């Protein structure tokens, strides 16, 4: 985040973005009149236009174009992240669906799966927010349940057999769509993480989170990240044909879209996300710092996200 040259006037308080998905408003945090407040903002980047998004999707990294992969396929599933992630998936999903149908995949054989992991099961309100009313009228959407409707994959993660969502596993073409933002132990979200833990069963979910409890934290660093390496090896065996990895700006719009191979495209998006989200340190020592988990403030569990930039030297 680049430092603002103008401090907030003492006594007026600080306005923080608040309530992602709900009101998309601001919260006024009052501070003593004697304090000087110095905003530290992300470097940021412009929002991509629709044509720029289309261009990125049509020039994938490390994989053939989506329409090439889709030719001859009779079914497809698109796994998307849930409302704990700030990506406006409803903007990108029609682009993917159009490419699939243009390649011959029947519209009634395309399923969108909300990959919520062990988070709350997605409901109709979540579908509308993440998929959009218009597309919901055209395609089938289902929530993931880590307790039911799972299939064995024959793959293990840390010695634990992996079971994944039946709808996703049963499709001939499997696609992942998610935001790429700093994560406490996965380096960055996105990529293969949409499958593990996003579409996995409770036993696997417990195993993935033990990486954090055991100290295998990569933070915003991907190199040498034990969780990321094991997860990607498992997902590669299970099968994730194509991914769309999106780096966001301060408006939650797509500022970089990297599609294609689940590892190569993810690394490109992570590099973009690091640049866009970078925060320069203050020019002089501060007495206190106020951190906001927005846009991952949809649930209290995500409050740790506010600390990731500090822990990983992004400020």
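^ Assign residues to that structure.
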């Amino acid at each position: 985040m680049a430092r603002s040259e103008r401090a907030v006037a003492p006594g007026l308080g600080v306005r923080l973005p608040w309530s992602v998905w709900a009101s998309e408003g601001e919260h006024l945090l009052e501070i003593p009149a004697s304090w000087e407040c110095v905003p530290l903002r992300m470097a940021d980047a412009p929002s991509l236009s629709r044509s720029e998004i289309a261009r990125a999707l049509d020039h994938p990294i490390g994989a053939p174009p989506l329409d090439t992969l889709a030719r001859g396929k009779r079914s497809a599933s698109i796994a998307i992240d849930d409302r704990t992630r700030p990506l406006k998936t409803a903007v990108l999903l029609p682009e993917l669906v159009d490419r699939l149908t243009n390649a011959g995949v029947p519209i009634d054989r395309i399923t969108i799966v909300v990959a919520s992991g062990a988070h709350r099961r997605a409901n109709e309100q979540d579908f509308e927010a993440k998929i959009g009313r218009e597309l919901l009228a055209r395609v089938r959407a289902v929530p993931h349940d880590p307790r039911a409707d799972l299939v064995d994959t024959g793959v293990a993660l840390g010695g634990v057999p992996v079971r994944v969502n039946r709808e996703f596993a049963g499709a001939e073409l499997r696609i992942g769509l998610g935001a790429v933002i700093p994560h406490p132990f996965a380096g960055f979200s996105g990529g293969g993480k949409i499958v593990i833990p996003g579409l996995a069963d409770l036993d696997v979910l417990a195993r993935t989170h033990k990486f954090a409890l055991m100290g295998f934290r990569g933070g915003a660093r991907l190199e040498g990240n034990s969780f990321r390496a094991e997860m990607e090896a498992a997902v590669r065996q299970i099968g994730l044909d194509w991914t769309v990895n999106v780096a966001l700006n301060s408006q939650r719009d797509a500022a970089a879209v990297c599609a294609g191979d689940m590892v190569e495209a993810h690394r490109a998006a992570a590099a973009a996300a690091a640049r866009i989200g970078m925060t320069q340190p203050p020019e002089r020592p501060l007495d206190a710092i106020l951190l906001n988990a927005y846009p991952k403030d949809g649930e209290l569990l995500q409050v740790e996200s506010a600390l990731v930039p500090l822990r990983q030297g992004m400020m």
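The first helix runs from residue 50 to 57.
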